[in-house]
Amino acid sequence: MDVLRRFWTDHPILSNWLILAVGMVIILVFSARHVGFEPLQWGALIGATVLLAGLCAWIINWE
């Protein structure tokens, strides 16, 4: 647990990105599971979602 706390304090943007990306990908997969995307389309959507989560984490930490 101490390792997670130290990672959170040492790398706040990266840890926010990780948590936000996981949550957003879960919502994406849950919402679009019956659409019938091909694996390449899923990869593109998940990649774009992770990049968007990184942008959001970066913007959140502007001060």
Summarize the structure in words.
- The structure is a single chain.
- This protein has 63 residues and is mainly α.
- The protein has one domain (2-60).
- Helix content is 81%, strand content 0%.
- It contains three helices and no strands.
- It is elongated and about 40 Å long.
Helical stretch tally:
3
Q: What is the N-to-C order of secondary-structure elements (H for helix, E for strand)? A: HHH
Main structural class: mainly alpha
Which oligomeric state applies?
single chain
Unreliable sequence segments: none
User: Using only CA atoms, what is the Rg?
Assistant: 14 Å
Q: Whole-Å distance between the termini? A: 28 Å
Estimate the mean pLDDT confidence: 93
Summarize the helices and strands and which ones pair or pack.
Layout lengths: L1 H9 L1 H20 L7 H22 L3
Helix pairs in contact: 1-2, 2-3
List keywords for this structure.
mainly alpha, 3 helices
